[in-house]
């Protein structure tokens, strides 16, 4: 039900969103598409859903609550690492996931009407072992490598409720995070 062009489009839109939300300003990053599922070393994940009448996609951001991850999110949010409480740290991770999916949601709005987004949920990474139970038409895993940060992993899982075919070119994508919309 998902064309190869649509799968590539979802992947491209997500990787662009990841670059705009998880990579600190002035930092070089490389996002690799992993050819097969791996048992990622991170301990937890933030899960967000973007849905329309035609599809549901889930984005899972894997992380370990350790010093290296804390340092990355402190740098990303321009705060002193020592000033980050446990709650501030978890909020920073959830907000980065929220920002990423917000960008993805906005960009998908160019192709699909009536798109909604969930709030971030932090769950144990072992829940990812059940992704196949969702009967998705597309599951893709990514690794994000950045200077001075640990490697992060992200999974994309797309379920389609109708035939979906759209194409996206990298040249069409904006590089900003957008503006706040008030309703």
TrEMBL record:
Keywords: Chemotaxis. This is Chemotaxis protein CheX. It comes from Herbaspirillum rhizosphaerae.
């Amino acid at each position: 039900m998902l064309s190869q062009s649509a799968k590539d489009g979802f992947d491209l839109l997500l990787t662009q969103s990841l670059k705009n939300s998880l990579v600190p300003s002035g930092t070089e990053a490389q996002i690799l598409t992993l050819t097969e599922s791996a048992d990622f070393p991170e301990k937890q994940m933030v899960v967000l859903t973007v849905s329309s009448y035609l599809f549901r996609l889930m984005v899972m951001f894997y992380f370990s609550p350790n010093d290296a991850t804390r340092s990355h999110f402190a740098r990303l949010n321009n705060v002193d690492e020592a000033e980050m409480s446990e709650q501030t740290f978890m909020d920073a991770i959830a907000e980065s996931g929220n920002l990423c999916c917000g960008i993805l949601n906005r960009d998908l709005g160019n192709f699909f009407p009536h798109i909604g987004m969930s709030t971030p949920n932090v769950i144990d990474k072992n829940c990812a072992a059940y992704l196949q139970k969702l009967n998705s038409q597309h599951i893709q895993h990514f690794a994000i490598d950045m200077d001075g940060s640990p490697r992060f992993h992200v999974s994309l899982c797309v379920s389609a409720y109708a035939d979906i075919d759209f194409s996206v070119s990298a040249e069409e994508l904006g590089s900003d995070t957008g503006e706040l919309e008030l309703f």
